[in-house]
Amino acid sequence: xxxxxxxxxxxxxxxxxxxxxxxxxxxxxxxxxxxxxxxxxxxxxxxxxxxxxxxxxxxxxxxxxxxxxxxxxxxxxxxxxxxxxxxxxxxxxxxxxxxxxxxxxxxxxxxxxxxxxxxxxxxxxxxxxxxxxxxxxxxxxxxxxxxxxxxxxxxxxxxxxxxxxxxxxxxxxxxxxxxxxxxxxxxxxxxxxxxxxxxxxxxxxxxxxxxxxxxxxxxxxxxxxxxxxxxxxxxxxxxxxxxxxxxxxxxxxxxxxxxxxxxxxxxxxxxx
Length: 272
What we know:
alpha/beta; 2-enoyl-CoA Hydratase, Chain A, domain 1; Lyase 2-enoyl-coa Hydratase, Chain  A, domain 2; 2 domains; 6-stranded mixed β-sheet; 4-stranded mixed β-sheet; 10 strands; about 45% helix; globular
């Protein structure tokens, strides 16, 4: 699939997805979500990829929705994406973005500039968010007569707590990368010139780990983070644990430990 709004490439065991509408500060249009879903599917199907980094081309990460191409088009009586009126959060019908992210291999957002509106809500379910010291964030929905989407009213509370999430979403103010780090919304702030190197360094932490187990862990975190029934939490953990017992990656880990060698999970998977 040829992409129009993003660029997809691989660097070693890491896939790099770059939002690519730099003349618009990578402002979102429905096609971008369609292409992002396709890019993640490509990375998840590639046995040589262990993690995925997403960043923005040019000086912005994603300046929210393209006002003319989305809201202006909708107010003019046309659907900006053909099926977004039937989709979740204004995305094309059939896209469940939070589920796509949580079902994926590890995802790292490298926020290089402005990330507002959907520019920030789309990365809240990611596993790691790091940002350039120049980055800015904002949940501007209330300022344009809208409410947030993509389960961000859940994920922002999970990251920063009820009070801070309420203040950020009700005020719609812009805030710095440093503040985002201080309140726990992102994991790190780095110098602009070091952003991608740091993202790839983090991705390397995942590179040697077995992919099936990483994806199971992501699902456990997503499903159990706000659970109240601890028996149900343990039921899901145990169901995955029993699956692990029968998978080649677990056998490889035990054999490698016994024989004092480094496990090769990729070879174990290919050998079945």
